[in-house]
Amino acid sequence: MEIDVAIATKFVQLVLNCINQEYPHNNVFWFESDEDIKPPRELTPAFYGCLDWHSAVHGHWLLARLARYFPEAEFQTTAREALQQTLTSEKIQGEIAHLQRCPFFECPYGFSWLLQLAMELDEWSDAQAKEWVSVLEPLETVVASNFHRWLQRLELPDRTGGHFHTAFPLCLALDWARSKNKENLVNLIDNKARQFYLDDKNYPFQFEPLGYDFVSPCLAEADLMRRILSPADFTNWLTDFLPQLLTEEVVQLLQPLQAANPNDYLQSHFRGLNLSRAWMLEGIISGLPDSDSRLDRLRSIAVLHRQFGLVDVASDRYATSHWLGTFAIYLLTARGLCR
What we know:
- It holds the Pfam family DUF2891.
- This is DUF2891 domain-containing protein.
- Helices cover about 60% and strands about 0% of the residues.
- By secondary structure, it is an all-alpha fold.
- It has two domains: about 1-145, no CATH class; about 200-339.
- α5 (about 90-100) packs parallel to α7 (about 125-155) and α9 (about 185-195) crosses α10 (about 215-230).
- The protein is globular, with a radius of gyration of 19 Å.
- The two termini are about 20 Å apart.
């Protein structure tokens, strides 16, 4: 699948179908008072649909990404209307109020997607998008500050492949920080990445996937390190970290996964895992020199995951339709390569 306006229209419609769908809903945070026991639309009035906060956030990212990518598409009107309805000062102030009570709600995963949304709008040369940038900026500032505080205190990374995983959100946040010239956060992420991952060697790849991963902890780590190391240093680091990349064993271990029950919310994570593996492999490839002997094998594995991950990716099963389009568009538009 290549991204075209017909495919983009399908993904836009999936998001439009769910960003205002309040239930079913999933939320994980501490109740501190009765103020925290409210319907989602009152707790987080901007981002309350799509099952959970982070999916609502990156659903709006998808709308902005594709509206920016296809300026002449017919879905421009409906995508812009949805963004306009969400990005109001009143709703954003409601989001800020919630973060004042629960400052690390959805940190780091949801926070990193909010920063991606802000980056997408900021990079979009469009008058209406500039208005949304101004509206979103107060929430962006709070999220960035809280993310910075969270990372400063983090002593050990989460090496699972779910919502509390560390490396992938650092990738998203680093791309935002560089685009906005936030040198303090850039330096903090650089320092923490080196602290957490620079000395990693001989990663036990056979342990993956863990549970119901939607990102590969190992490939996410490598995709982060290629962002902060020089090409020569990254080449050497990857050799130490994944020495088995040139063996047949890794080909067997890095096979795409299939969800036995596509309606199961946790099994649906494997659909996302195939897509995130594809873009992380492409990121790793971008960090290696053209002469690297691993490139052909990495490319073939990346293509396999891309092909497998994009099969039936626009299904309307809610277990996947509320979020999987974001992963597909992140891959298809090469957002992780900062294009």
